[in-house]
UniProtKB/TrEMBL annotation:
Keywords: Cell membrane, GTP-binding, Ion transport, Iron, Iron transport, Membrane, Nucleotide-binding, Transmembrane, Transmembrane helix, Transport
Residues in FeoB-type G domain copies: 2-163
Family that this chain belongs to: Belongs to the TRAFAC class TrmE-Era-EngA-EngB-Septin-like GTPase superfamily. FeoB GTPase (TC 9.A.8) family.
Keyword Transport: yes
Pfam families referenced in this protein's UniProt entry, alphabetically: FeoB_C (PF07664), FeoB_Cyto (PF17910), FeoB_N (PF02421), Gate (PF07670)
Function: Probable transporter of a GTP-driven Fe(2+) uptake system.
PANTHER family (alphabetical): FE(2+) TRANSPORTER FEOB, FERROUS IRON TRANSPORT PROTEIN B
Annotated compartments: Cell membrane
Membrane topology (UniProt): Multi-pass membrane protein
UniProt KW GTP-binding keyword: yes
Protein name per the record: Ferrous iron transport protein B
Length: 717
C-alpha cells in the first residue's frame, strides 16, 4: 500500500539526517510551487511505496515565516497519511511546542524522539512510555545519526495510517469550552478533519489560516463574541491564551517524564567555552580557516595540481590524444581544437579538482561536527553591531562552496530586508571556482614569496566585503531597521559521520564536474574558436601576431580594465568569460597559454604564463575584481529567482560591479605606488576619491534614522 509520510520538526532537530538515512540517495529536491522554499521528496529505501517529504524546519505553525506557511499549507492541502514529528530529545521542551500544534491538524502523528545518543551520554532519562501515554501518540526513540531504530519509525507510521487521531490534550476546561463554542458556531469546520486546528486559528485571529473558510457575517460575530468573552475572563488576547496554555502544558509534561542526569557541563559545553569564547572565538576561527586553505591550496594544491596539469592532462591525455590525432591524419585545426581548446581548457579546470575536493571535504567536516553553526552564532554577536544578522552568515558560509546554494539558503531569513541584503553579498565569498584562480596565483605570482597567506586573504577579503557592504547598504533608506533576532539550536559537537561528510562533498564535486563537462566545455570551444579565427574570418594558428577575433574583442574592452591593472586582452577575455562560469577564467589562461599542446614537464605551462602576465599588485587587483564582481550566470539566475524581482536583480548586479571596480581600483593604484614604487598619476587621484566616497558611505548618518526613531517613539507611547 502506498503511503505518504511528512517529516516535520524544528530546524536542526535532525530531519534531514533522518530523511537521508531513510531514503538513501534516491531523493528529489525542488521548490514548493510558487515559493522558493526547498522541497525534498524521496522514497523509503526498503519500500518504494512509502513516500517521504522533508518539510522545512519550523518552530511553530504560526504564519510568521514562509517556511511555516508552506508547511501548514502542505499539511492541510496535500493531506499526508502520517506526520512524523522529529523531536530533538536533548531540547525536548522547546521542540514539543511544535508537536502540540502539529497534533491539532487531525492527521495521525507519531513522534520520533531523535538524538537519544546525546540524551544517554548526558545521563538524562526520558520516560518514553509515560510520554507516549501523555501525548496520546506513539513515541519512538531513535538516533538518526547513528542509524538507530529508524526502521521502527516507518513501521509505526504504517500502523498509524487511517487511525482516528486525537489532538494532544493541551487545554484546560475553560479554553476547551471556548474552542468547542467556536467549533459549534462555525458549522463548516465541525465535521472537517481539521476542526480543532481551525477553531484554534479562529480563536487566535490568524486570518491567513482562516480566510479559506469564507465565514458568513453571522459566524464572524459569533466567533468574535467568544473571543471577547475569553479576553475579558482571562485578560489576554486569543493568541496569548493559546500560547500560554501550550507552555504550561509542556512544562508539566516535561516535569513528569524527563529526569536530568548530571547537571554539570557536557564535553560539548566545555569545548564551547574555548571555541566560542568572547576573545578566542575569532582568532581560532581565523586560524582554522588559514589551516583549511593551507591544506587545500598549498599542500594538496602544489604537487598534486602540478602533476594533474602537467603530467596527466599535459603528457598523458594531451600528448596521447595529440599523437593519436596526428597518426589519424586529421586536419590540424581538429587537433588544435581537441588538444589546445578542449583538453587545455577543460583540463585546466579539472586540474584543480584535487584542491576543490579537499576544500569541500574539510568544509563538510567542519559543518558536520557542528563547528559552522557556532561560527554563525559568534559572527552574529559581532556583526549585529554592523547591522547584519548572524542568519546572513549561514548563506555566506554555504556560498564559500558555491554561490548558487548560498543564495538559495537566504530563504531561512524571514526579514525581507535582511534577506535581500544577504542575497546581494553572498557571492562575495570565494566559491570553489574562484578558488581555482586563487590557487593559480598562489602557485605562480605568489609562489616562493611566502605566498601561503594569499588564499586565506581572499577568504577574509570576502568577509570584509560583506561587512563593508552591510554597513553601506544599511544606511540607505531601503535597508534601514534593526536586523531580525537570531535564534538557532546549536547541535552538540560530534565525531563526523563518514557517510554524511562524503555525501556532502560528493554532491558538490559532482556539480563541479558536470559544469566542467557542459558550460565550461562550451565556453572553451567558443574561446578556442574566437582565438583561432582572424579578424578577416580565416583560420589562423594562434600566435602573438595572429590578430584573432578574441584578441580584437579583448582589446576593444581592455581599456575599461587598465585603471585596475589588467588592461591586456587576455585578462579581459578571461574576466568576461568568467561571467559564464568562474572556472572559465582559468581555462581561458589554459587555452591562451597553450597548456594542452605543451607536452613535457619543462615546457612553459600556465603557471609560467601567469607569472609573466601579472605582478603581485595586478594579480591581487585581478583577484579582487573577479571575486567581488558579478558571479557566474548560474548564480545570477539564483539571485533573480530569490529576489523575485527584475529591478532588485539589476540593482544587485550593478552594485556588485561598481563595488568590485572601486575595490580593485584602490588595490591596484595604491599598491602600485606603495608596493611597486611607481609614481602617482591621475588614476591614483581617482582611487583617492573612491576611497573618500567609500569612507563617506561608511560613516555617514543612516538615511532615515529620524523616521525609525519616530516610529519607535510612536509605538512606545
Ligand atoms: P535538520 O535541520 O532538522 O534537517 O537537521 P540536520 O539533519 O541537518 O541535523 C542537524 C545536526 O544534528 C547535524 O549536525 C546532525 O549531524 C546532527 N544530528 C542529527 N541527528 C542526530 C542524532 O541522532 N544524534 C546526534 N548526536 N546528532 C544528530
Ligand atoms: Mg535540514
Amino acid at each position: 500500500m502506498s503511503i505518504t509520510i511528512a517529516l516535520a520538526g524544528n530546524p536542526n532537530c535532525g530531519k534531514s539526517t533522518l530523511f537521508n538515512a531513510l531514503t538513501g540517495s534516491n531523493q528529489y529536491v525542488g521548490n514548493w510551487p510558487g515559493v522558493t522554499v526547498e522541497k525534498k521528496i524521496g522514497s523509503y529505501k526498503k519500500d518504494k511505496e512509502v513516500k517521504i517529504t522533508d518539510l522545512p524546519g519550523i518552530y511553530s505553525l504560526s504564519p510568521y515565516t514562509l517556511e511555516e506557511v508552506v508547511s501548514r499549507e502542505y499539511l492541510i492541502n496535500e493531506k499526508p497519511d502520517v506526520i512524523v514529528d522529529v523531536v530533538d530529545a536533548s531540547n525536548i521542551e522547546r521542540n514539543l511546542y511544535l508537536s502540540t500544534q502539529l497534533s491539532e491538524l487531525g492527521i495521525p502523528m507519531i513522534i520520533a524522539l531523535n538524538m537519544m545518543d546525546i540524551v544517554e551520554k548526558n545521563g538524562d532519562k526520558i520516560n518514553v512510555r509515560q510520554l507516549s501515554a501523555d501525548l496520546g501518540c506513539p513515541v519512538i526513540e531513535i538516533s538518526a545519526l547513528r542509524n538507530k531504530n529508524i526502521d521502527k519509525v516507518i513501521e509505526e507510521a504504517r500502523k498509524a495510517v487511517g487511525r482516528n487521531y486525537q489532538p494532544i490534550d493541551v487545554f484546560d476546561e475553560q479554553v476547551e469550552e471556548y474552542l468547542n463554542e467556536i467549533e459549534k458556531s462555525v458549522g463548516k469546520i465541525q465535521f472537517s478533519n481539521h476542526s480543532r486546528w481551525y477553531a484554534i486559528k479562529l480563536f487566535e485571529n490568524d486570518e491567513k489560516a482562516t480566510e479559506s473558510l469564507n465565514l458568513s457575517a453571522n459566524e464572524k460575530t459569533d466567533v468574535e463574541s467568544v473571543i471577547a468573552k475569553a479576553e475579558a475572563e482571562l485578560d489576554d488576547d486569543g493568541e496569548g491564551i493559546i500560547t500560554d496554555a501550550r507552555y504550561t502544558y509542556i512544562s508539566s509534561i516535561v516535569a513528569n517524564t524527563v529526569k536530568k542526569g548530571r547537571t554539570g557541563l557536557t564535553a560539548s559545553d566545555k569545548a564551547d567555552r574555548i571555541l566560542t569564547n568572547r576573545f578566542l572565538a575569532i582568532p581560532i576561527f581565523v586560524a582554522i580557516m588559514f589551516f583549511v586553505y593551507y591544506i587545500a591550496v598549498t599542500i594538496v594544491g602544489g604537487p598534486v595540481t602540478d602533476w594533474v596539469n602537467d603530467v596527466f592532462f599535459g603528457e598523458i591525455i594531451g600528448g596521447g590524444v595529440g599523437s593519436l590525432l596526428e597518426s589519424a591524419k586529421v586536419a590540424p585545426w581538429v587537433n588544435s581544437l581537441v588538444v589546445d581548446g578542449i583538453i587545455g581548457g577543460v583540463g585546466g579546470v579539472l586540474g584543480f579538482l584535487p584542491i576543490i575536493a579537499t576544500l569541500y571535504l574539510l568544509m563538510a567536516i567542519l559543518e558536520d561536527i557542528g563547528y559552522m553553526s557556532r561560527i554563525a552564532f559568534i559572527l552574529d554577536r559581532i556583526f549585529r553591531r554592523f547591522g547584519l544578522s548572524g542568519k546572513s552568515f549561514i548563506p555566506i558560509l554555504i556560498g564559500t562552496g558555491c554561490s548558487v546554494p548560498g543564495v538559495m539558503a537566504t530563504r531561512t531569513i524571514e526579514n525581507e530586508n535582511d534577506r535581500r541584503m544577504t542575497i546581494m553579498v553572498a557571492s562575495f565569498m570565494p566559491c570553489g571556482a574562484k578558488t581555482e584562480i586563487i590557487a593559480l596565483f598562489a602557485a605562480s605570482v605568489f609562489a616562493g614569496r611566502k605566498g601561503w597567506w594569499f588564499a586565506p586573504l581572499c577568504y577574509f577579503i570576502g568577509i570584509i566585503a560583506v561587512v563593508i557592504s552591510g554597513v553601506i547598504l544599511k544606511k540607505t533608506r531601503k535597508f534601514a531597521g534593526d536586523p531580525a533576532p537570531f535564534v538557532m539550536e546549536l547541535p552538540e559537537y560530534h565525531i563526523p559521520t563518514v557517510t554524511n561528510v562524503l555525501r556532502t562533498t560528493w554532491d558538490r564535486i559532482k556539480a563541479f564536474i558536470i559544469k566542467a563537462g557542459t558550460v565550461i566545455l562550451l565556453a572553451t570551444i567558443i574561446i578556442w574558436f574566437l582565438q583561432n579565427v582572424s579578424t578577416s574570418f580565416e583560420f589562423v594558428e594562434f600566435s602573438n601576431e595572429s590578430h584573432s577575433l578574441l584578441e580584437a574583442m579583448g582589446r576593444a574592452i581592455a581599456p575599461i580594465f587598465s585603471p585596475i591593472g589588467f588592461g591586456d586582452w587576455t585578462s579581459t577575455v578571461a574576466t568576461i568569460g568568467g561571467l559564464a562560469a568562474k572556472e572559465v577564467v582559468v581555462s581561458t589562461f589554459g587555452v591562451v597559454a597553450g597548456l594542452g599542446g605543451d607536452v613535457g614537464a619543462d615546457t612553459p605551462s600556465m603557471i609560467e604564463y601567469t607569472t609573466a602576465a601579472f605582478t603581485t599588485v595586478s594579480a591581487l587587483s585581478f583577484m579582487v575584481f573577479n571575486q567581488l564582481c558579478v558571479p557566474c550566470f548560474a548564480a545570477v539566475g539564483a539571485i533573480r529567482e530569490e529576489m523575485n524581482d527584475a529591478r532588485w536583480t539589476w540593482f544587485t548586479v550593478i552594485y556588485q560591479c561598481l563595488f568590485a571596480y572601486g575595490m580593485a581600483l584602490m588595490v591596484f593604484q595604491f599598491g602600485s605606488v606603495l608596493v611597486l614604487g611607481k609614481s602617482p598619476n591621475i588614476w591614483t587621484a581617482v582611487a583617492g576619491l573612491v576611497l573618500i566616497i567609500f569612507i563617506y558611505l561608511l560613516v555617514r548618518k543612516p538615511k532615515n534614522l529620524s523616521d525609525v526613531e519616530v516610529k519607535r517613539a510612536v509605538s512606545e507611547n
